[in-house]
Amino acid sequence: MKAPSLQTLSIAFLSLAPAACSAPAKPEPKAELAVNVTVSAPAAAAETAPSAAPAPAAAPVVTPPAPAPSPVAVPAAAVLPNLLANASPAAWRIGNPPPKPWQFPTSDTEITVAVVERNSARWVELKDDATEKSASLRQQFQPLKAGRLSFRIALASDHVGQIGIFLGQGNASAEVERIVELKLDSRGTLLMGSVGKREKTAVTLAPGMSDHLFLEFYTSNEDLNLRLGRIASDGTDTVVTEMSIPQQGHAVSRLRVATDLAPRGSHFYVTDLMLTARPTP
Fold first, then answer.
1. Class for the domain spanning 85-277
2. Which of 8, 56, 93, 184 has the most crowded CB, counting CB atoms within 10 A?
3. Starting from the edge strand earliest in sequence, which strands make up the sheet with 266-277, in order?
4. pTM score, two decimals?
5. pLDDT for 232-259, tens place per residue?
6. Residue-wise pLDDT tens digits, 46-58
7. Residue 194 in contact with residue 249, Cβ under 8 Å?
8. Cα 194 from Cα 204, distance rounded (Å)
């Protein structure tokens, strides 16, 4: 057998070279196919997925009406302090007068100023059987031109005299010192006024009965304005009598609760005394 020539081997080798050179390129289509599958898979799935049933219609949205605005609550900080010291009945000792700075005459057989228990509450009893002195309860405070005094008062069953509740200057004993006057006459009618000039009000008290009252005072246009009313059990105020006195309203600095010098026989109780400042309207 004749051996192949060098030329023949060269031709054979060249004929095999393209196949050998093209073999490494085969994985490229696979890589491209893998990428194509990864990218196109969601689209294919979307195309082949069965169509979903139409969503039901949404229910109409009903907007509830806006709630009515609630009343504005008064903050606790708005509660005004009592300008009278040791006015809380809880601080009183039964059988003794109220503690200082309250002032009172020395008790004797004809005058009584002492704390007692009445209807499960503590009251100051003022009893006057004297002819030359009165039973009184007094306290001084910082000058005040506009304020409100509230208190509970009860007449004993044997009461026959007169009572005065005054706001004024000095000792508030003389009429010229009494800027604000509230006086109970012998018939049980409350009179209201200033410096000895008083007018009848629509408030009356009877022996054995009690009442919760308030007295407001303020100035406007150089006049002194007074307002008397009752406080209900729920705290509601009811104005009973109002008056305007054409005189300059001076500041008051003393409270005086007292029986009258004549006639004798005054016997009553007071409690829950509270004096607060108020802005002038």
1. mainly beta
2. 184
3. 111-118, 121-128, 266-277, 147-155, 210-220, 223-231, 237-245
4. 0.71
5. 999 999 999 999 998 877 899 999 999 9
6. 444 444 455 555 5
7. no
8. 19
